[in-house]
Design brief:
It is a single chain. α5 runs parallel beside α8. The protein has a four-stranded mixed sheet, sandwiched between helices. Strands 1-2-3 form a three-stranded parallel sheet, sandwiched between helices. A two-stranded parallel sheet has the order 6-9. The protein has one domain: Spore Coat Polysaccharide Biosynthesis Protein SpsA, Chain A (Alpha-Beta Complex). It is of the alpha/beta class. The protein is globular and about 50 Å long.
Length: 242
């Protein structure tokens, strides 16, 4: 499942690359769901055309902009309308390598509820620019320290797999899915872990964006990370004091 906004330059190639991984996956049938935030560049019509030709390609027009809205509505649609048992979320710009998909599904097949692609474990490859690496390290350290998370090294990437059962355990009101900020990505993972889900990580390959432009507003994202972490830390302290 991938959320899109103005990704016409990469979306068709991404869909082809994901479905090509079926040759390496035996236990699952791969489908691609694109949750489009009413793109202006023709992304929606491209995916609509591909969906008409291939029953394993699906399009959801969420009408509103925002990665949280796209992801959350997409997850709901995949489970309720498509009957998905396992969901993999990934970016549409080839920063996430479709070749990692079989590794995610292997871990799900081993019984894990959540599998996180990490840039901070042995075997990972991170080709992002230095400022993006610094942002990732800082944001991950802040959230992990505030919440005392020890079982995952990666909080902020949106390359993950999880079971539909785990998604359904998360209270929608506990995640900021209606926010336009990227804060949904780390908060949603934290909420899944809070359900008691079993989690593991795999090394991931992360490339710079191939084409198009990033929609992330870095200062807003870091502000939201700090705000969430502070509130979470205060909440933990209050529980311990009580």
């Amino acid at each position: 499942m991938t959320p899109t906004y103005d990704e016409r330059e990469t979306i068709a190639d991404l869909i082809d690359a994901v479905l090509a991984e079926q040759d390496r996956v035996d236990a699952f049938e791969l489908h691609v769901l694109v949750a489009d935030s009413h793109s202006r560049d023709g992304t929606l019509s491209i995916v609509d055309g591909l969906a008409a030709q291939n029953p394993r390609v699906h399009l959801l027009d969420v009408h509103e902009r925002g990665i949280g809205i796209g992801l959350f509505r997409g997850f709901q649609y995949a489970i309720d309308d498509l009957g998905a048992d396992v969901l993999i979320e990934m970016d549409a710009d080839f920063q996430h390598n479709p070749g990692d998909i079989p590794h995610f599904l292997q871990k799900i097949g081993e019984g894990y509820d959540v599998v996180v692609g990490s840039r901070f474990v042995d075997g990972s490859v991170n080709e992002m620019p230095l400022h993006r690496k610094a942002l990732s390290v800082g944001a991950n350290q802040v959230v992990r320290s505030a919440l005392g998370l020890k079982n995952v090294t990666e909080i902020t990437t949106s390359y993950r797999a999880f079971t539909s059962e785990t998604f359904l355990k998360v209270d929608p009101d506990s995640v900021p899915w209606q926010e336009k900020s990227f804060i949904f990505v780390p908060v949603f993972l934290v909420r899944m872990l809070e359900t008691g889900a079993s989690a593991t990580e795999i090394p991931m390959t992360m490339h710079p964006r191939v084409r198009g432009y990033s929609k992330m507003i870095y200062w807003r994202y870091m502000r939201d990370i700090l705000s969430f972490s502070l509130k979470a830390r205060l909440g933990i302290s209050s529980k311990h004091a009580g």
